[in-house]
Amino acid sequence: MANKYSDTAIRMNFLVKPLLRSPLHWLMSSNVALIRFKGRKSGKAFETPVAYTKFDNEFLIGLSETHNRQWWRNYREPWPLQLKYKRRWLEGEAHWLEPGSDAYRQSFDRIFKRVSYLPKIYKVYDFDAAQGLTDAQLQVLLDNGSGMVRFLAKPVAN
Known about the structure:
The chain has helices at residues 4-11, 13-21, 102-114, 118-121, 135-143, and strands spanning 32-38, 45-51, 53-55, 58-63, 79-85, 88-96, 147-155. The chain is α+β, with helices and mostly antiparallel strands. The model has no long low-confidence stretch (mean pLDDT 87). InterPro entries: F420H2_quin_Rdtase, Split_barrel_FMN-bd.
C-alpha cells in the first residue's frame, strides 16, 4: 500500500526545490534539504530534496519507500554528496545503511526519538521512545522497504 506522505512529497518536489533555494528557505530547511550528487554509473549531476534528521555533522536521510526513489542506489558503497543545509552547501561522503543491520536499526531508533511524528510516516504506530525500536517495529520498516542513508558533512567554501 502506498504511503500518502511519500507520494505527496514526490509530487511537491517541483515547489520544494525553488523554495529551498530562496530567502524563504527557513519555511522548510529545518528538516528538508537539497542534495547534489553525480550518478555513479552515468556521471550525470542530480539534485533532489530530502528529509533529514541532524546530529552534529551527521545527517540521517530516511526513505519511507525505497522503491519510489532511485538516488540512494548510488550509496550502496560510500560516495560523495553535497547537502544544502540552511543556505550553505556542505560536502562529504554518504553511504546506504544495509536494511536490518545494527546501524540501520540504531539510526531509525535515533530519528524516531528525536522527531516524534516520524514513526507514523514509516507506519510504526506504537513507537515508545523509552523502549526504543522493537524487533516487530524493525520488521515493519523492512517489510515496507524503508531505507536510510548516512551523510557525514564538512563545510564547503561557497
